[in-house]
Amino acid sequence: MSEEQAEHAVIEITSIDLKPEFRGSALRGKDKSGIERIFIFRPDTKIRRISPVESTQQLGEILAVQSSLPFRVGQEVLVAWKVDPQSSQKIAVKITVFE
Question: What is the value of pTM for the model shown?
């Protein structure tokens, strides 16, 4: 799913539901106005890190070399997302991690 014309939201992560093979894995968080948002993430979701060196990789590539997700509960992230026309779910196409 392309990142072009994606919508964006800054959220503070409140929970992460990681499922086997990412089927239905979800990231929950609250935006600045306190509204809870739920995004589905997949192995092809891009992860952009700002610090210590800026880089962008697919989540599947990251998890092939490390055992933990590159984001955590309590962390603020920027999520670029699109609505899946078949399921109406918000699919994260890119998650920017600031720390």
Answer: 0.91
